[in-house]
Design brief:
78 residues
């Protein structure tokens, strides 16, 4: 029984390390996504007004939807 507990303990430690790596990677990807979204919004607000009528629909999807839920999920794990 003690050997099984030790094995489970080490597996748990490994999983927690992997989880932390994935959390950091997710944070970096989210930051990159936010930066790209900011750049896209700048382009649309600056020069996109004349092109938006011909090349794009009038409505723009809310690109923040996915990132807010992933942030809440990662924050709830802390």
């Amino acid at each position: 029984m003690e050997r099984l507990n030790t094995e489970l303990y080490y597996q748990n430690c490994h999983i927690m390390k992997e989880n932390e790596k994935l959390r950091k990677k997710a944070q970096l990807l989210n930051q990159e996504n936010q930066e790209l979204l900011s750049q896209l919004k700048k382009k649309l607000s600056n020069g996109g007004a004349s092109n938006s009528k011909t090349n794009a629909p009038n409505n723009m999807f809310d690109l923040n939807l996915g990132s807010s839920s992933s942030q809440n999920a990662s924050n709830s794990n802390n």
